[in-house]
Amino acid sequence: MSESRIRAPELPDTLEWVNCDAPVRIADQRGKVVLLDFWTYCCINCQHVLPDLHYLEQKYPDALTVIGLHSPKFPNEKVTANVLKAVNRHHIRHPVANDPTRTVWRQYGVRAWPTIIFIDPEGYVVGALPGEGRRRQLDDLIREHLDAAAKRGLRGDGAIAVRPRPEPRGPLSFPGKVHAAGGRVYVSDTGHNRVLELRPDGSVVRIFGSGSLGLVDGALEEASFNEPQGLVRAEEYLYVADAGNHAVRRIDLLRGEVQTVAGTGEQGRYAGERFTDPLKAPLNSPWDLAYDDGRLYIAMAGQHQIWCFDLKRNVVEVVAGSGREDLVDGPLRLAALAQPSGLACAGRHLYVADAEVSALRVIDLERNRVDALVGIGLFEFGDADGIGLDAKLQHPLGVAVDTDRGRLWIADTFNHKLKRLDLGTREVRSVDIGIPLAEPGGIDLEGDALWIANTNAHTLVRVDTDGGKAEVVDVRL
């Protein structure tokens, strides 16, 4: 019977290990179940697998070995230093190897992100499990194979030591988004699981969130978030896309209290088009927010759609996107988006940083259409200025609109650049601000002040769009 089984190929010496002292060998894991997680850090579906792996690692600490095989999609993800940033951002505590040429991907016949290869305690491949949402299936398989190995006297144990390479300590940790309104600057301090309210000079007015990961409502530092992202102010409220909690939170800026207003706290999957109880709406990694006249628009990155929370009617509904990950223009519900991660609103137009197709999309709410301003498809990306579809971006996460000057400002995240799009001519130009950017994830404009969440540098940058002067803001707690 063993002749029909396939021995798991050993990992090659060419891998670049991120958070352990020595390469991990599959042959040394006999007696344990091994999961090879083929992922790329841009991918929201890959990010959804990480909590499942963490749960399983906690449940089987000595009998399970998880190895992350980072198999990059974008050129920026081939750089091992950037992979280390992603490992720290997502608090990954199992060995991770960067495979910039996707050698192991081909060796194991992997075809999609994410994919988990299951290896039994004797070192044989049991099968490949593509996609997300497989926690229960993996749990059952692990228990089954460990029990069988124990009966045959083949069980082994012993966890692999990892060596974290932590980020420098500072007031900000992987800030995801920024929003400027009413003389205040709000920053989603994503790595610290909190939201900061700042004065324009960087001094902190208030901190919302205890810093502990969780979903807890309450006042100021009693509340908790889970990797908050998008922010938008509507009168006396600040709305927060609490991405890790799959929820929308509302901060009462007068009373200083945090309340959950939409989402169940667990990742949802597509289950309808309209939800009359927002707290039962199945949100899926809400990543950014925009507001207009009682309507809160949500970039639902995990569902590849744009949703709307009608605050007047207290109804959540789908606005645009079929739910299929792709770049397809056309009528709102027939169009396809791909991990929309940035939103800006100007009247009846929504501008979308559509990350996985490296695109800028416009949603015309009068004509009920979605169209691409920049971007061609899932595997068309680059770094090129130009007109319309001749320009190229690489996984942009943020967009801001300047209605007075007819411009869009783009956080071209994986190109580490700020870019500007002229809405009249559709010309895209790179803007040199004299300050290095490191995967900027969020951007917002108030007056002549352009604010950039410089995510991987753990900083906040202010750019004077009139004079061109830029500075790193001294955030002071």
Provide a brief overview of the structure.
The chain has helices at residues 44-59, 80-89, 103-107, 135-151, and strands spanning 6-7, 16-17, 33-39, 64-70, 96-98, 115-119, 124-130, 178-181, 184-189, 194-198, 204-208, 218-219, 228-234, 237-242, 247-252, 257-262, 274-275, 286-292, 295-300, 305-310, 315-320, 330-331, 340-346, 349-354, 359-364, 369-374, 386-387, 398-402, 407-412, 417-422, 427-431, 442-446, 449-454, 459-464, 470-472.
Structure, explained:
By secondary structure, the chain is mainly beta. It has two domains: 2-151, Glutaredoxin (3-Layer(aba) Sandwich); 178-472, Neuraminidase, CATH 2.120.10. Helix content is 10%, strand content 37%. It is built from four helices and 35 strands. It has helices at residues 44-59, 80-89, 103-107, 135-151; strands at residues 6-7, 16-17, 33-39, 64-70, 96-98, 115-119, 124-130, 178-181, 184-189, 194-198, 204-208, 218-219, 228-234, 237-242, 247-252, 257-262, 274-275, 286-292, 295-300, 305-310, 315-320, 330-331, 340-346, 349-354, 359-364, 369-374, 386-387, 398-402, 407-412, 417-422, 427-431, 442-446, 449-454, 459-464, 470-472. A seven-stranded mixed sheet has the order 1-7-6-3-4-5-2. It has a five-stranded antiparallel sheet with strand order 12-16-15-14-13, with no helix packed on it. It is globular. The model has no long low-confidence stretch (mean pLDDT 96).
